[in-house]
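Tutorial, part two.
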Amino acid sequence: MILRIGTRGSQLALRQSEWVKGRIESKHPHVRVDLVRIRTTGDKILDAPLSRIGGKGLFVKEIEEALLEGRVDLAVHSMKDVPAQLPDRLFLAAFPEREDPLDALISAHGRTLDELPLNARVGTSSLRRGAQLLHIRPDLNLIPLRGNVDTRLKKLEAGAFHAIILAAAGLNRLGLSDRITQTVPPDRILPAIGQGALGLEARRDDTGTQGIIQFLDHEPTRWAVRAERAFLKELEGGCQVPIAGFATLRGTDLYLRGRVASLDGIQVIADHVNGDKTESESMGIELARRLLRVGADEILAQVYGR
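Running the prediction step on this input gives:
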């Protein structure tokens, strides 16, 4: 049997898809897994911030089209890139165990966020990171930074920035953990929805593929990501908006934090909820509505230009 995985062609995307391929072939020796590289809109446009070219689905749309057309059987996504709303015929069939969900600061001279010089140049492509950085350090000079991990690191080494911020998960998966200067705690910079988690997307009617990958599903990751995505969906947020959400699970108790910030970092609306994991989606909705009632709606209207 041949199972085709649709994946982006970046080094990180391939590493993630190869990991899934290896696990499936080890568990199911009768299955051969082929990787099908698909170039997405987000990969084609590298000279503009993601928020300007339409943040929703930039790294998944073409892969989902391949799934719907039957050209691939499975997609491996970084969950922070996946829009809250999926096509009707597709669903997230499995969530492997989450990597480190936090953001990582990499600085040129080993300085932490608080130790960076006044007006330091910090590279980031994320409105979420930028807004929270400015809330902590209004003096920072934030500069848009696109490209794969290797490209971003080379720009830092060339002296274009004092520091850059990336997802710790990607660095860990690429074997670059030693480059991290500081893992930024979530009370300072709250992660993106689904950051550090992978999502395996399949067709709803493809029970064969679903059965093959079910062993990869990690229940605590599933509950946490469900809560975060319900929070994002209720806020009508895309992938490139200053919305942050992070859920943790202890036993059956789920704790969800959410944050919406203005682009200049001056306004930050934050709250949290906790409850039983089986109520994860309703908890995400409740938290979103709490933030909307106290000003998040006005911040998001400004971001969307409404």
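The chain has a mean pLDDT of 92. In part three we will examine how such features are distributed along the chain.
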